[in-house]
Amino acid sequence: MALPAYDLYDVRSMLSDEERAVQEAVARFTDERVLPIIGDCFDQGRFPKELVPEIASLGLLGSSLPEEYGCAGLNAVSYGLICQELERGDSGLRSFVSVQSSLCMYPIYAYGSEEQRRQWLPRMAAGEVIGCFGLTEPHGGSDPANMKTHAKKDGGDWVINGSKMWITNGNLADIAIVWAQTDEGIQGFIVEKGTPGFTAQEIKHKMSLRASVTSSLFFDNVRVPDSARLPNVKGLKGPLGCLTQARYGITWGPVGAAIACLDEALNYSKERILFGRPVAATQSAQIKLADMARRITLAQLLVLQLGRLKDAGTMQPQQVSLAKWNNCRMAIDIARECRDLLGGAGITTEHAAIRHALNLESVITYEGTETVHQLVIGRELTGINAF
């Protein structure tokens, strides 16, 4: 019996019925609604906002949060599978869901008041309110402790000044989760669109994540009430906890991008005839394709175990770093190799490989660069901080 080309170790058999149903539903959505338009969206530099109501109706926004807030209450493995299938379509779409779910809804749930949860989470799950996450700053994203944005207490209000950079969903967002230095350490604030002094400016001329909105945020004496502050966390623990949630989803997403590239290269190499035979009939092509399947299989097993650890409540941030490092590197290398197998055709966005390769340049960089995650593992092994 032939093995499934993109699941050589039958990882699917290790999933529960609910997890398989989630994967199938999102795979259908990606095949039917995303793939027919995403190449054009990338070319046009346009986020397919028209898909947001369908994404919400499938329960993909805040999918791991409790049902009492209008969310799906799914487990971590199901969320991972959502990320995998969405990124099989495009990293930009998975980024949108990651930011909404892990970087905006999660901090409101984990660090917010009950009033904030009731006010925002149901509407965010329904796609009626879009969020963005304001942490990274222009002078350097890998050193959040050196944050320049600050919030000063003024009576019952807070006044925020500063700027944020490379913010996914920035110009789409109705609210921003903004992290700022205060006299009591770093704190988070929910800043609504239209608040005086708060502006977003979309970043243009991108060659990566073109089907995603990326922005700079500016805060010029932005006044918010204390009720907009996330009351249940202070210090770097808050934003870093959000990043761990988002990085977890990112460990799964590139598996989908790699599968999309392998699928395309495999089919193309069977059809393309060179020197009287299909490219797939050559030893060099088969070795490349086999090596891609090997790396995808290892990545699938890695994230499944990571998801089981997360569902058991024992997942450690270092384990997330290892998986993000491995799987992003795996996917970007496969995308580039698939582009090569496609020959000249591989440089056009009529094929997926170049689009995924370009997108993965961002994915391997954001939420901690490859070097940062390598140093996290190095510190874990040696006990010495080399940052």
Automatic annotation (TrEMBL):
Annotated Acyl-CoA dehydrogenase/oxidase C-terminal domain residues: 235-381
Pathway membership: Amino-acid metabolism; lysine degradation; Amino-acid metabolism; tryptophan metabolism
Catalytic reactions on record: glutaryl-CoA + oxidized [electron-transfer flavoprotein] + 2 H(+) = (2E)-butenoyl-CoA + reduced [electron-transfer flavoprotein] + CO2
Residue ranges occupied by any Acyl-CoA dehydrogenase/oxidase N-terminal domain in the UniProt entry: 16-128
SUPFAM superfamilies given in the database record: Acyl-CoA dehydrogenase C-terminal domain-like, Acyl-CoA dehydrogenase NM domain-like
Enzyme Commission designation: 1.3.8.6
Domain Acyl-CoA oxidase/dehydrogenase middle per the UniProt entry, residue ranges: 132-222
UniProt record, GO biological process: fatty acid beta-oxidation using acyl-CoA dehydrogenase; fatty-acyl-CoA biosynthetic process
Keywords, sorted A to Z: FAD, Flavoprotein, Oxidoreductase, Transit peptide
Gene Ontology molecular-function annotations: fatty-acyl-CoA binding; flavin adenine dinucleotide binding; glutaryl-CoA dehydrogenase activity
The protein's required cofactors: FAD
Family: Belongs to the acyl-CoA dehydrogenase family.
Name under which the protein is recorded: glutaryl-CoA dehydrogenase (ETF)
Naturally occurring in which organism (per UniProt): Pseudoxanthomonas suwonensis (strain 11-1)
Lineage of source species: Bacteria, Pseudomonadati, Pseudomonadota, Gammaproteobacteria, Lysobacterales
